[in-house]
Amino acid sequence: MSARSPARRAHRPVVGPCVAWPLCYTTALVRGRCRMSRPPRFTYAGALHHVTLRCNNREFLFSDASFERFLGVLQRARGKFPLALYHYCLMTNHVHLLFDVRRDDTLPKAMHWLGTTFAREFNRAEGRHGHLWEGRYRSTIIEDAAYFLRPMAYVDLNPVRAGMACVPADYPWSGHRALRDEDRERLAFHPLYVALGANASARFRAYGELLAAEAARPAASLATTHFVGTPRFVRRMEHRFGLDRPGASLVRRPLGLGVFASGPRLGDPRRRR
C-alpha cells in the first residue's frame, strides 16, 4: 500500500440524527516502509476532556482492591500534573475521567504516566504480565460553557446503565459521593457546578434533578467523537486543529452535538456481569 493510498473502512451510521463517519488512517513512509499512523490527539491548555481507558480485550479485570489502587494513583497524578479532576467512574473493565488541563502537553503526559504507573502496580499485585490497557486512551474535548454538566451526568450514570447500581449514590467507585460531600481532596469543583446553588446541599439537589432528567434520555456515547458542544464550538475546534482543510477526511470526523443527543449505548452486554 502506497503513501498516496490510505486504507479506508466504511462504518454504518449511528442511531439518531448523526451521519456516518469514515474511520480513516493515513499512511507514512518510515525508513523506506509504509506504516499506519496513529489517530491524532486533540488538546490545548484549558481544554475540558472526557477520557476513557479500557482493559485489554475488554476483560473484566478490576476488583475493589484494584479500584482502591487506581484511586491512589489518580490522586498522585493530580499532584503531579497541572489538571483539575471534576469527576470519575471506575468500572470493572474501563474507567471514565473528566478533567481539564492547564498546559498543551498535560493530557498526553498525564495519561501516559497514569496508565503505565497503574498497569505496573496492578500487574505486580496480581502476579500477571503483559498489557493491561486496550491501546491508548480515548479523549473527547467538551465545550464546558454549554455542556459540562451533561458529561458529568453521563459519567455518573455509567454504573446505573450497566445494571451495577440502582442509582449513582449506590455505586462506591465514582466521584458521586465526593460531589455530595464536596470533598475537595478527591475532586475539583467546576464553576458551573458551584453555580447550581448557594450551598453544598442546594448544589447537590439541583445536580440530582439534572441526573434524573439525563437518565430519561437515550443513552449516549462520548467515545466516538473528538468534540462535543454547540455547532459553533465544533466548527471552531475543526478550524483550530485543521480539520476544515483539504485532506481532513483522512482523520476521524467529529460528530459534535448529535453523538451526545442520541446514539448507541456504550460498551457491550458483558459489562452487566
Q: Uncertain runs with pLDDT below 50, 5 residues or more?
A: 1-37, 249-273
How are helices and strands ordered from N to C? Answer: EEEEEHEEHEHHHHHHEHH
Q: Please name the CATH architecture.
A: 2-Layer Sandwich
CATH fold-level assignment:
Alpha-Beta Plaits
Total domain count? 1
Cα Rg: 19 Å
Superfamily (CATH H level) name: Transposase IS200-like
Mean pLDDT: 78
Number of H- or I-type helical stretches = 10
Find the count of extended strands (DSSP E, 2+ residues): 9
Helix content: 25-40%
Strand order of the largest sheet: 6-7-5-8-9
The first-level CATH class name:
Alpha Beta
CA-based shape: globular
The span between the termini is 42 Å
Main beta-sheet annotation: 5 strands, mixed
Determine the strand fraction and express it as a percent band.
Answer: 15-25%
What class would the helix/strand composition place it in?
alpha+beta
